Amino acid sequence: MTGICSIIKEIEARKSYQLRRASNRYIKLILIMASQIISYKFRISKPSKTVQERLEQTLRLCKDLYNASLQERRDAYQINRIALNYHTQRAQLPDIKTTNHEYKEIYSQVLQDVLKRVEKSFDGFFRRIKAKQKAGFPRFQGANRYDSFTYPQSGFSLTDNRLTLSKIGKVKIKLSRNVVGKVKTCTIKREIDKWFVIFTVETETEPLPKTGESVGIDAGVCQFLTLSDGTTVENNRLYQSAQKSLRVAQRAVARKKKGSNNRKKAVLKLRKIHQKIKNCRADYQHKVSTWLIKNYDVICIEKLNLAGMVKSNLGKSLNDVAIGMFYNMLEYKAVSAGKELIKVPAHFTSQTCHACGHCEKANRKTQADFECVKCFHKNNADINAALNILRLGINRLDATHNIS
Ligand SMILES: [Zn+2]
Questions:
Q1: Which of these CATH numbers, 2.30.29, 1.10.490, 3.30.420, 3.30.1490, describes 214-403?
Q2: What is the pLDDT of residue 332?
Q3: What is the pLDDT of residue 25?
Q4: Which side of the chain, N or C, has fewer Cβ within a 10 Å radius?
């Protein structure tokens, strides 16, 4: 018995296997910009008991394989300074199936994909080291964290709303929209007690008709967005009411005795609310970004400093993370629609007078009002900032066009 194989045995034997929190999320519902891959996510309608068991089983075995393969790489690196690669680990798969028959019940490419995920996290690790960034060693995955597995090429087929998964069975999915294009991969994901399927699809870029409009966007805490033409986009109300129930649920967990059944129930409820907030937010951001891409040809935003915000206050950081997600969405939608997204440095956009260019902290009378101390130009502070962002963006666009 070699390598990963014996480690898997060990994992099974160790009942109190220490689960560590993982930092890497593998499934990002973000398409890869350059290659025009979009993803579709659908809910799986209540799977049958047998299918549900197979799904759970596959997830558990994939998690064990992931951790074992990670362990082998860690050991090889820490003890012998050898970097193992995907191919040496993949060569062990037949062996693993012979020693542990449960693995025969999983489609081969699904297992290969697990090893690819490990490879990916190590690649990221080495890349960060090379770039002299903070690099945490790839971490072990707990049962709650490891929540998906992928058919990377084949082993699945979709006819109408029926999805057949090799070695698992048939499931019905709630097809909320049509899948257009060639399906490349199929990922099954568990979100607490619900199952989802995510297809990545290769599509041709579809440029949207030009409108001739440009816009600058200022993102804030009170208003989600303020546009340079004065339009404001509110924060999602549903999301805010969910925040309230989140606080209630957090307090409920804190009150319950550790290890008690009631606490477990309260934790589950809390996780469900978190999930709901996440879905709510994504849904809202999709609507807003699609609207913007449809209506404007050039969209100017501020460059976010996501690395520097960790130290600032938590509420604001969370808000910035949400805005970061939104900007990513805007970026890929702009690419596929043939529109321009321009990022400008965020310095002084809120203190500079749009009318005369005078930059001073005192220009900003209050959080909401802008009044230039030099030319007495008055405006809403967010609109003034959005106008500055637009101007900077257009300058930048002109500069790049002049070079090319
Ligand atoms: Zn002024």
A1: 3.30.420
A2: 83
A3: 31
A4: C
Q: Torsion angle, CA of 350/356/362/365, rounded to 10 degrees?
A: -70
Mean pLDDT in order along the chain per 10 residues (404 residues): 76 50 31 59 92 96 96 90 90 95 96 96 88 86 91 93 95 84 91 92 80 93 90 83 87 92 93 87 91 95 69 60 88 87 90 94 89 94 95 87 55
* Cα 258 to middle of ligand 1, angstroms: 59
What is the CA(282)–ligand 1 centre distance, in A?
A: 38
Q: What is the pLDDT at residue 33?
A: 37
- Report how far ligand 1's centroid is from the alpha carbon of 354 (Å): 7
C-alpha of residue 392 to centroid of ligand 1, in Å: 16
363 Cα: distance to centroid of ligand 1 (angstroms): 8
Q: How many A from CA of 395 to the centre of ligand 1?
A: 19
Distance (angstroms) between ligand 1 centre and the Cα of 353 equals: 5
176 contacts: CB under 8 Å, gap ≥ 6: 42
> How far is Cα 302 from Cα 300, in angstroms, rounded to an integer?
7
User: Ligand 1 centroid to 355 CA: how many Å?
Assistant: 5
The full DSSP string for 325-351 is HHHHHHHHHHHHHT-EEEEE--TTTTT
**pLDDT for the residue 250:** 92
How is the chain split into domains, by residue range?
Answer: 42-204, 214-403
Q: How far, in Å, CA of 302 to CA of 349, rounded? A: 9
Cα 231 to ligand 1 centre (Å): 22
